């Protein structure tokens, strides 16, 4: 390729510097002011517009709930059934791109410069990226999703007028229990393995590269410097950042709203806590309060500590279930799941001509939109804690190891439930609503009281670890990439997120706004594809320098 | 009386530090002490510098300028923190022992309502440092 670096926006590094030479000074658009006793340092106009538009959307969802629900409620399925090929195809590109970077010479490039040393040890780093991005999902879907895909696979194919009405993945495995288990596990791991982590890795790598190696501010827009050049500091960049704040805050708030409903159901089962709005509002308040303490204690003293505690606790629960459950069968299933995942990976990820439309659109495309709408938040948080790793190390730890952990988690939790069903005919898990499946599975094992209580703690704390890291991310974006903005700002975003969740919970509107957040997955898919290209340009310029 | 004075500085807001800088320099002249300027940065690019190395270089230049302008012996000590807003106090306290200073001179704002929730950095350092602290308002 001809050297077109200058008009591509990334100048070749000169001399000892590998920084991008931009006119922009970080913080130049910021307003530093005093509101009452509180000092503020906010980006103009990103802070104000994101804040106001979030308030406007909440009012809209509360004032015209039916209209909001009909618009957003229809938008989401329309996107996943019309753009399923786009989501699936893009997902594959992200995985292939990441795998390629591991083996390419670019893998040696170190984030933060050749001399940089890692900011965090492996356990702390790993705990944080996992607790921010996926912990909560594993709690809810670890039991239920393998069970669902197993049941539909076992049920076989049903058709009506030439259109498949079943939800089984691929060609199902009618009546064959062993094959259904394998297919069910593969279909589950596909949604929690390489693909979602590939999405997170792309965003995180783009931001880490342009922040630590190129000297641009830690905001989403920086990854677009190779594409838009100096224009990223204007409205093009404002819109990208506002959209990211918007998706992050609503993503967190709606999850928090639903999470409270689910935690309430669990507490009701265990301790008889009445199910209702009062309990749910109290739960949201409690989770927000803990998150508040965590953000005020900071990245090392709050977020990291909570993430490590929770990952430790989750690991203990995993080991416990593995030991008291059908250990040999679970270990065999773990191996079988890995084999089955790789055997089915290609057919599951083909974006065109799928016969299993219910599965590939209703499950896969939905998940992809969901993960991608979360990727600005999780990606930016991963970037924040990844300085000093090489590209190779980074991708192995963000892509391969989490995938391995997810396979283990799904095999043990889902596998135990499936074994209970096959061997002992226990149908409690199968019949239970989503939020109770984990507890029904634990109820069949010894010490159910203790493990269920640990389960509740894990659910609550994983919400906290998403909420606190999310508040830090939003605070950084709305401060124009400054990570040292005054404390009241991060406190504001943390409380704001809880308040939005409570407003939507009481007034109704969780469903419609969650559908809207997932719809942001479509524009962000494009954003992620562009990021791949930016990463490529950025790494190329970096390598010339070394 | 004092051999080594530590002066925490915020390179993004040097204009606000004038009184503290002058005060430290005067004491340094009186006792013939050395002044070390300490500044804390995040590892991400900020308004002052793009990398921690650039930040350290800028602090170094700042210390040399101050030394020349005020006629005192100066040094610089830059510290990187994961979350500077929150970790500023413990980081500065550690810098006191790392630099071996026996006096801290630092600027602080006039206390207001928020100081009940988040005490000022000057207040916290004065409350916890083992050496003398002069808070300049």
From TrEMBL, chain A:
It is a multi-pass membrane protein. It is found in: Cell membrane. One of its GO terms (cellular component) is plasma membrane. InterPro entries: BCCT_transptr (IPR000060). Keywords: Cell membrane, Membrane, Transmembrane, Transmembrane helix, Transport. The chain crosses the membrane at residues 46-65, 85-103, 124-143, 194-212, 232-261, 281-299, 311-335, 365-383, 395-422, 442-464, 491-511, 517-536. One of its GO terms (molecular function) is transmembrane transporter activity. Belongs to the BCCT transporter (TC 2.A.15) family. This is Betaine/carnitine transporter, BCCT family. It comes from Shimia aestuarii.
Automatic annotation (TrEMBL), chain B:
Residues 1-137 form the UspA domain. It holds the Pfam family Usp. InterPro entries: Rossmann-like_a/b/a_fold, UspA. PANTHER family: STRESS RESPONSE PROTEIN NHAX, UNIVERSAL STRESS PROTEIN UP12. Belongs to the universal stress protein A family. This is Nucleotide-binding universal stress protein, UspA family. It comes from Shimia aestuarii.
């Amino acid at each position: 390729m001809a050297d077109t670096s200058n008009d591509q926006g990334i100048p070749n590094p000169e001399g000892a510097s590998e920084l991008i030479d931009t006119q922009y000074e970080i913080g130049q658009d910021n307003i530093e002011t005093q509101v009452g006793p509180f000092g503020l340092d906010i980006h103009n106009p990103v802070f104000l517009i994101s804040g106001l538009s979030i308030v406007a959307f909440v009012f809209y969802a509360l004032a015209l709930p039916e209209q909001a629900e009909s618009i957003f409620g229809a938008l989401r399925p329309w996107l996943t059934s019309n753009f399923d090929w786009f989501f699936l195809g893009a997902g594959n590109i992200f995985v292939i791109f990441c795998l390629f970077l591991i083996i390419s010479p670019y893998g040696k490039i170190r984030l933060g410069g050749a001399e940089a040393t890692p900011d965090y040890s492996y356990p702390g780093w790993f705990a944080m990226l996992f607790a921010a991005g996926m912990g909560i999902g594993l709690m809810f879907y670890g039991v239920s999703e393998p069970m669902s895909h197993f049941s539909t696979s076992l049920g076989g194919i049903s058709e009506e007028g030439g259109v498949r009405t079943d939800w089984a993945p691929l060609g199902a495995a009618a009546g064959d229990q062993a094959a259904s288990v394998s297919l069910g596990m593969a279909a589950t791991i596909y949604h929690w393995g390489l693909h979602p982590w590939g999405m997170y890795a792309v965003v995180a790598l783009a931001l880490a590269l342009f922040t630590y190696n190129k000297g641009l501010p830690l905001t989403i827009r920086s990854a677009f410097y190779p594409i838009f050049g100096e224009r990223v500091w204007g409205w093009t960049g404002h819109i990208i950042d506002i959209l990211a704040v918007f998706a992050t805050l609503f993503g967190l708030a709606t999850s928090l709203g639903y999470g409270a409903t689910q935690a309430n159901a669990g507490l009701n089962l265990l301790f008889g806590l009445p199910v209702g709005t009062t309990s749910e509002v109290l739960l949201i308040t409690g989770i927000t309060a803990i998150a508040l303490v965590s953000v005020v204690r900071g990245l090392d003293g709050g977020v990291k500590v909570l993430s490590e505690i929770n990952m430790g606790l989750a690991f203990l629960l995993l080991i416990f279930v593995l030991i008291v459950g059908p250990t040999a069968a679970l270990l065999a299933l773990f191996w079988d799941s890995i084999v089955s995942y790789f055997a089915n990976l290609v057919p599951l990820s083909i974006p065109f001509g799928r016969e299993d439309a219910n599965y590939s659109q209703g499950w896969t495309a939905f998940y992809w939109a969901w993960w991608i709408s979360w990727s600005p938040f999780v990606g930016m948080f991963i970037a924040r804690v990844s300085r000093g790793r090489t590209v190779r190390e980074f991708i192995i730890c963000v892509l391969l190891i989490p995938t391995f952990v997810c396979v283990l988690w799904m095999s043990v939790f889902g596998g135990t439930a499936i074994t209970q069903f096959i061997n002992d005919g226990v149908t409690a898990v199968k019949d239970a609503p989503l939020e109770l499946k984990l507890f029904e599975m634990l109820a069949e094992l010894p010490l159910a009281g203790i493990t269920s209580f640990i389960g509740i703690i894990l659910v609550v704390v994983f919400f906290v670890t998403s909420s606190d890291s999310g508040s830090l991310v939003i605070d950084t974006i709305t401060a124009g990439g400054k990570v040292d903005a005054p404390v009241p700002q991060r406190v504001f975003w943390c409380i704001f997120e809880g308040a939005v969740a409570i407003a939507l919970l009481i007034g109704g509107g969780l469903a419609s706004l969650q559908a809207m957040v997932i719809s942001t997955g479509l524009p962000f898919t494009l954003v992620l594809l562009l990021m791949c290209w930016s990463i490529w340009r950025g790494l190329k310029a970096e390598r010339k320098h070394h | 009386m004092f051999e080594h004075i530590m002066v925490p500085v915020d390179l993004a807001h040097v204009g606000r530090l004038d009184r503290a800088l002058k005060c430290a320099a005067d004491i340094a002249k009186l006792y013939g002490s050395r002044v070390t300027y300490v500044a804390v940065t995040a590892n991400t690019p900020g308004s002052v510098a793009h990398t921690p190395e650039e930040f350290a270089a800028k602090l170094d230049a700042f210390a040399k300028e101050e030394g020349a302008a005020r006629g005192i012996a100066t040094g610089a000590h830059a510290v990187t923190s994961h979350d500077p807003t929150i970790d500023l106090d413990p980081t500065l306290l550690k810098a006191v022992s790392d630099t071996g200073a026996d006096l801290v001179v630092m600027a602080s704002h006039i206390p207001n309502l928020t100081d009940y929730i988040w005490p000022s950095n000057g207040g916290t350092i004065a409350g916890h440092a083992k050496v003398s602290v002069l808070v300049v308002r």
